[in-house]
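Tokens for chain A. Residues wanted.
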């Protein structure tokens, strides 16, 4: 979809939604995503492993999503 738009439409979308279009190019490791989803606590927005709560840093989210920039 993004590739079909002209530059003006892309700029308008980028102005309204920021870097959201870059998420379309991210390759997601489905197995990793499924494994992480089992430990995600949506009420606290963190991962829970036993008694330990982990919240990824921005850099860790970027690495997991294979996203070079925010």
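Reply:
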């Amino acid at each position: 979809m993004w590739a079909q738009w002209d530059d003006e439409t892309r700029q308008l979308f980028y102005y309204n939604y920021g870097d959201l279009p870059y998420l379309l190019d991210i390759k997601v490791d489905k197995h990793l995503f499924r494994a992480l989803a089992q430990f995600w606590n949506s009420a606290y927005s963190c991962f829970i492993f036993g008694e330990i709560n982990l919240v990824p840093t921005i850099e860790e989210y970027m690495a997991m999503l294979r996203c070079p920039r925010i």
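The chain has a mean pLDDT of 83. The longest strand covers residues 46-49.
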